[in-house]
Amino acid sequence: MKVRPKVKRMVGLTGTPSSNGLMDLWAEFRILDMGERLGRFIGQYRETYFKPDKRNGAIVYSYKPLAFAEDAIYEKISDITVSMKSEDYLDMPVLITNELIVHLSEKEREVYETLRKELVVSIKDKEIDAINAAALSNKLLQMASGAVYDEDKNFIQVHDRKLDALEDLIEGANGKPVLVAYWFKHDLERIKNRFDVRELKTSKDIKDWNEGNISVGLIHPQSAGHGLNLQAGGSTLIWFSLTWSLELYQQTNARIYRQGQNETVVIHHIIAKGTIDENVIKALNKKNVGQEELLEAVKARLEKGDL
């Protein structure tokens, strides 16, 4: 910020301006206009447009926008903001999204529900516990995927429902290359143990994928979320396990759904029924709606010739 006043012209580019909600916008515009539109301090921005949401006594964990906040913020930033969505200006392929629901057995669901309600459960003589809400969310997401780590960082198998579903999807691709996104290391290990797959980690891996030499490629959203061009190698992406991050989710999808893709893109989500998976996909869709509203608001002004 010390250097910013010396910069005469600055342009900020992002594909995910508010991936986790309106709170994200403050930092971006603080750099662009040095606080002219949304305030110089994050505290001032919060007090003006938000109210406490989740809290524990005096400690506030999250905030939610006031009723007028969305329109007011869009109006504040509209004079220096332009939205140009790729599908509006480029010849983009058809995009199909799909949710494949898997069902836990009665015994598997009992294990899941015990951890959710009691914060502790015994699996194969190992005790799995969660010390707080964040840890519980993480453990439940692991269980939904099929395994969970114990205190020694060894994973314990809970079910194979998602692996079975993944097998069906791979077979259903009829030999076409498939890209699989995973979140936990035990997802990676279990997938590797069952299928002939290859991680996309090096430039050689990416080259081989784009040349069609890899049938099933594995990517992690944190390492493959930005900058990779994978559209030449395939058009099917399977989310084996999900992430709460809309930014990583959208950027991972954009590795194959981008300019230069010549095939219909199909994005599958393997969702464990009645688990936290359903909360995650709902949250991603909700965050996306909020971001789309922002993009549409500034795009509308552009179309009217106001910018």
Automatic annotation (TrEMBL):
Single Gene Ontology BP annotation: DNA repair
Database matches in Gene3D superfamilies: P-loop containing nucleotide triphosphate hydrolases (3.40.50.300)
Molecular-function annotations in GO: ATP binding; ATP-dependent activity, acting on DNA; hydrolase activity
Keywords linked to the UniProt accession: ATP-binding, Hydrolase, Nucleotide-binding
Name the record gives this protein: Superfamily II DNA/RNA helicases, SNF2 family
Organism this protein belongs to: Maledivibacter halophilus
Lineage of origin: Bacteria, Bacillati, Bacillota, Clostridia, Peptostreptococcales
